[in-house]
Every structure is written in structure tokens, then in C-alpha cells.
Specification:
two-stranded antiparallel sheet, 1% strand, mainly alpha, flat, MetI-like fold, 323 residues, 16 helices
């Protein structure tokens, strides 16, 4: 048994051997010499090429775009400083309201149709015991197809004649023919359908990867409690994927707000500007008849600002729920 004298002696030895942590201890100053000796210089030398490449191809275009937004330039004649005139011109364009409304309509349809489809597909694939890899490869296959090729292929399918591929399939069920891309009401849903098919595969792979991190014991416990497939999905799978779902949600909003390929290749913004989006307006400013890169970059900055504010507010509101 240890006596009180032994305990006090041990405490005294420990105090003598342990470094002083009080406020009176002098802090070691970090000088350039100690930074170099600690490997800081070699780290900087290794990272410098990466920083230069990143700055040249990422930050320099952003800075250049900010400068161009205050200029009237077509990249041929000398640039002319116009201040906020480009922003005034863009905001007063009567087509901007239509483009914003169409972009919001596309984003809403893509969320209603394109957001749950990958999740349902991933959950169903995770329940399959055999050939799961084959189903995942088939789901990802549309992502491999070049976007231009996919759009041109679907444009053929969307033929409004009775012999068109989709109208032929609809005719088997006594439906159609449908106008698809030739009608203002049908054009945007048709674009969303193709965009969902083309992009869903990547999200399916993300969900499948996240599902592998769900502990099997949770499903076993749910089965012991008598839970069926849908109750396991709702009470086990969904809570475990909550963080991933929040991230893919904002990524889809940002991606749909920048939709360009489908409106440009399918309809060119028609019919009657029913598929003109904000990014298509930016393209027309720069490469259309006006050839004004200043107005194009001004609208680009406004779109980037809106998306940045939306993302910041979204992550602020969902920070507690996604953890």
C-alpha cells in the first residue's frame, strides 16, 4: 500500500519532469529560419507549380471576366470602359425575365423528375443480390455517351410524326402523337426528360457508394423488428444518406441553373423562346449578332452571384440537419 509520503514524492517528481505549461513559459518564436528548417521551403517549391497552373486556368479567367464586365469589348477592337452600363443593359433586357422563368421551370421539373429517380434506382440496385455491377454499369452508360451525340439521338426520337420513335411507342398504348419539341408546353419537359436520362447515372453511382457505408447491423435490427423493404429504406437508408442527399440537392440546383446544351442543340431557345435559358442568353450575347462579351460576362457574374448566395443560405439552413 502506498503511503501519503510516497504519493507526495511522486507528484513532486512528475512536476519537475513535466514541462511548465503556465502563462509564464516563453513561447518559441517561429522565424523564417525555423520555417525553412521545418520543411516549409520544400513544400512551397513542390506546391508552386500547382498553384501557378490553378491560378492561370481558374482564377485568372475569373478576374478577367470581372474586368470585362465593366467594358464594351468584342475581343477584336480595343476595349472601352463603360462602368455599370453592361449590367444596366442586361437587367433591362425584356428577354431576361423569360429566360429566368424558363430556367426556374427547368430546375423545378428536373428536381421533381431527376432528383428522386437516381435515389430509387440506387436503393433498388442495393437490394439486388446478383448482377448488381451489371445494373450499375447500365445505369452509368448514358454518362459515357457524349452529350452532343445523346442530344442528336434523342432529337431523332422526338420526331413529331406518327412514325417517330416515341410517338410509335405511345401509339402502342393508344396515345399520341405528341408534338414534343415543336410545342411550347411540351418542349421544356422533353428537354428535362433527356437531361435526366443523361445525368442520372453519375448520381446513382454516388448513392451506391454511400449505401456501402451503411452498417448491415442496422438492416438486420430492422428485419428483427419486422420492418419491410420500404420501412427499412425510410427509417435506415434515408437517415444514413442525409448528408449526401443535401449535397446532391444543391449540386443539382446549380447544375440545372446552368443548363445550356439541351436548349441550344434541341430547340435553339424556341419555340417562341419557351426554352431560352440564362446561359443561352449569355451565349447569344457573346456569339450572337451583338458580339458583346462585356454584356455576356456581366450576366455570367450576376448568375454566379445568385448561385453563390443561394448556396451559402442553403448550407447555413441545412448545416444542423446534414450532420
Amino acid at each position: 500500500m502506498m503511503t501519503s509520503t510516497t504519493v507526495r514524492t511522486s507528484e513532486a517528481v512528475l512536476r519537475e519532469e513535466s514541462p511548465q505549461r503556465g502563462p509564464g513559459r516563453a513561447r518559441r518564436r517561429r522565424t523564417p529560419v525555423t520555417w525553412v528548417r521545418g520543411g516549409g521551403l520544400s513544400t512551397l517549391v513542390i506546391a508552386l507549380p500547382l498553384l501557378l497552373v490553378f491560378g492561370l486556368f481558374s482564377w485568372f479567367p475569373i478576374v478577367r471576366a470581372v474586368v470585362m464586365s465593366f467594358q464594351f469589348t468584342n475581343l477584336v477592337t480595343p476595349a472601352e470602359w463603360v462602368g455599370l452600363e453592361n449590367f444596366t443593359y442586361v437587367l433591362s433586357d425584356p428577354l431576361l425575365t423569360t429566360a429566368v422563368r424558363n430556367t426556374l421551370w427547368f430546375a423545378l421539373l428536373a428536381l421533381v423528375l431527376g432528383y428522386p429517380v437516381p435515389l430509387v434506382a440506387a436503393v433498388l440496385m442495393s437490394e439486388v443480390r446478383r448482377m448488381r455491377g451489371l445494373y450499375a454499369a447500365l445505369a452509368y452508360l448514358p454518362v459515357v455517351v457524349p452529350p452532343v451525340v445523346a442530344v442528336l439521338l434523342w432529337k431523332t426520337f422526338y420526331s413529331a410524326s406518327e412514325t417517330g420513335v416515341f410517338n410509335t411507342i405511345a401509339g402502342w398504348f393508344g396515345l399520341g402523337p405528341f408534338p414534343w419539341l415543336q410545342d411550347q408546353a411540351w418542349a421544356m419537359p422533353s428537354l428535362v426528360l433527356e437531361a435526366t436520362w443523361a445525368a442520372a447515372g453519375g448520381t446513382v453511382i454516388i448513392y451506391l457508394a454511400a449505401l456501402t457505408g451503411v452498417a448491415p447491423e442496422l438492416y438486420d435490427a430492422a428485419e428483427v423488428d419486422g420492418a419491410g423493404v420500404w420501412r427499412k429504406v425510410w427509417h435506415v437508408t434515408m437517415p444514413q444518406l442525409r448528408g449526401v442527399l443535401f449535397v446532391t440537392f444543391i449540386l443539382q440546383i446549380i447544375g440545372t441553373a446552368q443548363v445550356f446544351t439541351e436548349p441550344y442543340l434541341f430547340t435553339g431557345g424556341g419555340p417562341a423562346n419557351s426554352t431560352t435559358t440564362v446561359l443561352l442568353m449569355i451565349y447569344n450575347y457573346a456569339f450572337g449578332g451583338r458580339g458583346d462579351y462585356g454584356a455576356a460576362t456581366a450576366l455570367s457574374l450576376l448568375l454566379a452571384l445568385v448561385l453563390a448566395v443561394l448556396s451559402a443560405v442553403y448550407f447555413k439552413l441545412t448545416s444542423r440537419w446534414s450532420s
